[in-house]
Every structure is written in C-alpha cells, then in structure tokens.
C-alpha cells in the first residue's frame, strides 16, 4: 500500500512540477527602465497577452539551444559560427561573379571589366573603374599577391564576421543567468519573462492594455531613462567595436602567431584555479624595424616575450573569454603600455589551421582588418613553444624535453606531464604578468604537474589497483589539481580523517578509502 501511495505521489509531483514556476507570483522589476534588454525586445507590436510574450521569450532558447532546454556559451558560439558561415557563402557568391574565365581566381583586370560593363549598362562613364577594381582586390586579397583565390573569396573582414542583431541578443540573454552556473534554463527564463511582463502589466490582469503599451512605446521613442532598451543598443555597438586594435604604422611588420595551447604549464593562471594555463615564448631577434605582433591562442596562455623586446611596437593578445568578458591571456617581458586585448568573440578564429585552409586565410584576413596591414610573417600550429621572430621571418622551435624531474616532483608522473606539455613548467615568481583577466599563482599546479608535486610532498600516493590506477589522498590538500579531464582524468581515494579538497574535479572522482563509496566528482568514473 505504501508503494502505491508513493507512486501516486511521484506522478502528481512530476505532473505538477512544470507548472510550478507559472503559479509563483511574479516579482516585477522596479520600473520599465530596469527590464533587461533581451526581455524588453520581445515585447513587440501585436503582443498583448502574457502567454504570447512568454512564448516569444522562451522561443529564443528553444531555437538556439542544442537541447532546446538550456542556453550555454557553446550555443551562443555555435549560433555565431552559423552566421559567419552564412556570411562567407554570401560573400563567396558576390566575389566569384568576377571570375570571368572560371579559373578559380579573380584579378583586378576581371574586376575592372565587370565594373566597366555594369557602368555601360547603366549609361554611366568609366571614370574611376581602375581605382575601384584595385580597392576591391585590396579588400579581399589576403596574401597580397594581387589575385583573389577561391579560399580568399570566403575570408571575411573582421567587421563582417558577426550577425550582431541576432547573436548579440542571444549572448545578452545568456548573461541573465540568475545563478551564474553558465547556463540559462527554460524554467529560469520563464520566471524572468513573467517578472518583466508584470512590470508592464501594472493592473496584473495578464493583458497589456493600450495605456500600458503606450507608456512602453513612449519610453522607447524618447529613450529617456530607458536603461534596458538603450543598454541593448550600447551592447550591440560595443560588439561592433570589440574587434578593433591600434592601426599598424607604415614601417611596422605585422606578425601573426596562432596556436591552440602552449607546450609548457604555467605556475600562474589567467583563467582561475581550476583551469590550466600554459605558456609559450616569443623570442625577438636583433634587427631593424618595429614588430606589430598578434598572438592568438584557443586556450589560456601566458606569452613570454624574450630577446630584443624593444622592437615590439604592439602586442595584441586574443584568446578565450571569461564569463565576465575578459580575455584569458597574459604577457611578460614587454612594456605593459604596448599590450592590448581583443575582447570580441568571433573577432578571429581561435584554433590553429593548415596554412592552405580557408580558416587560416580567415585569420589572416582578420589580422588585416584589425591592423590595417597584411601579416608579413605568420605561423599556425597546434602547440607552441618558442616563436623566433626576426626582421624577415618567423619560425617555430620545439622545446627541450627534459625527462629528469626537477626537485619536488615525482618522476613517473612528471614524465606523463611531458607527453602533453614537453616544456615542463614555466616559473614566473614575482615577474609582472600583464593580463586582462586576473593573474595569480596556482595554489596547486594543474594536471600532472600538481599530481607529481603532491606525490613528492607525501600528500598523494599512487596505487595500482585491479580496477586501474588510483591516487590516495593521505594528507589534507588545499584543492584538486585543475583540469583533470579527458586524458588527464584520475580517480582519488580519500583516506580516513582527511578532508575533501576544494576545487572542481571535472571528469575525475573521489571514493572513500573506508567504504569504497562515491564521494564527489564524476560518478561514472568511480563506478569502474
């Protein structure tokens, strides 16, 4: 009988749950000006009923989220990429029409002939055709050889890589995430939407009356104090200007360096204690002329400028953004006044590509848009150690792989570290790190570097069990090593009397040494 009762109770709860938030009493915003812009934008002409408005708001998640239930940064990035791809196709179609002989290349002569023909058809004179053709070629000729190739036809200038109106609204929507867990769920957004509608629907009858809509319209027309509405357009404008950098001077050489990650673990982080920050070096050779360097990384990287750093006129750092919109990158060895950070997502591809790929041409086109000049030197690689930059060329040098573990690190675990980070550990000490996001020393080093250090300190013990390798936590540690995920996933066993550490476990997990029960982290890994 008890089982029957609890079964019925569960059915009632499941049935009722989806409507729970709808029955909660809305909490209106203080005034219309306080309504967040992404919510206010959905109060369109013809929307008068609460149900209509809420449906409009929720439709944004239903359409943009992969699971149609919760919006994440990945969804925002995917939407931006789709917009970029669509713009690429459109531009390709626009440019390929100048390829008169269909050889996959567009020359200034072909562009001039098309311009001349179009002007004749309109009854206009041909004056200026030559200049227009040259400007057209210069805009899309990424490598500066005077010819637009098939790949270059798809490479967009940075200011054309965003669908600002559509994707800016989605990104602004994600920023409403009330509990800051990195995702905005349908349930969370429904509560926010009902709160917004209740702010407009002052009499609470679920219908926006003509007078209530007139009050809203008046605010939109004059913009006085319209914080939410104006902030949305300010947000769009900031996105338009985010992909900007100082213009390269006539005598400066633009150098583009693009990597996925550095090959050395940094002992400081620009991405928080739970995320790995790597490091790469830019070695400047003696020579004449100033160097304008754009350093791009798909992951958090601290760039060490070495050699004749006085030749660096500008160092532009581009990388992943934190939740607060900061570029997770840093630099040492260069005048802080010469370092700038590009904050716009989508300003440049954050992955390294083959030199012949459209994506790499896209990166070079973006560099040209940012600086106003083509990159005379460029390197794209998956991982970077030492970039040797001279007056005439840039070359990538591999790190010296030191298999002997330094003092204070377990040898076996250290050798595992060298598989993914052959450069070992970059130690910054009191060196000033110029960063956009906060730079701080790791409390516990990430990945195998942290494991090797904790084993040497006697706080961890490695054990080969029938189910696989395990790391016993035998003494209290401040936190887990960061970024223990993917190939770096481990299983911890907590000894009796030892406290659970702070930090994120990602794919890793912890079980009790006394009972074998799951304690924290990824339960699927603990089950093996």
Keywords:
528 residues; alpha/beta; flat
* Estimated share of beta-strand residues: 15-25%
Specify the number of helices.
16
User: Level of helix content?
Assistant: 25-40%
Q: Write down the Rg.
A: 28 Å
Structural class: alpha/beta
Poorly predicted regions: 4-22, 162-166, 224-240
Termini Cα gap: 37 Å
Total strand segments: 24
Task: Explain what you see.
- The longest helix is centred in the first third of the chain and has 24 residues, at about 75-95.
- The chain is of the alpha/beta class and about 525 residues long.
- It has helices at about 1-15, 20-25, 35-40, 50-65, 75-95, 110-120, 130-140, 150-155, 165-175, 185-200, 210-220, 225-240, 360-370, 410-420, 445-455, 525, and strands at about 70, 105, 145-150, 185, 255-260, 265, 270, 280-285, 290-295, 300-305, 310-320, 330, 340, 375-385, 385-390, 395, 425, 435, 440, 460-465, 470-475, 490-495, 510, 520.
- The strands form six sheets. Strands 6, 8, 10, 12, 15, 16, 17 and 18 form an eight-stranded mixed sheet that branches.
- Helix 9 (about 165-175) crosses helix 12 (about 225-240).
- It is flat, with a radius of gyration of 28 Å.
